[in-house]
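Nickel transport protein, Geoalkalibacter ferrihydriticus DSM 17813. Tokens?
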Amino acid sequence: MKKFVCPIPAALLLLVLTSTSVWAHGMSIFAYVDNQVVYTESYFSNGQAVRQGRVLVFDSERNPLLEGETDDEGLFDFPVPKIDDLTLVIEAGMGHKAVFVLEKSAVQE
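Tokens:
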């Protein structure tokens, strides 16, 4: 009698193991405005700062407004470039990317 080995449990286990490692490398960017300066903070899901991450800023029509780089603490700031909804994108290589939308109402304050 021949034994049948079902590949589904092995495939599910592989999926769970590889997915966990992907989730462990999540990244976030947060931004706020104070005195017409936008302050950003970027960090990985484990709390580690995104060092030398590339920050891109776009207006509501997806026109690029500026770009910069986070410092060793994951911080980057810049004067408000335009009174509009601003989309901030942080890129940290190897596919790490996060987006934050700063609404026009927050920029106007």
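The chain has one domain: 26-108.
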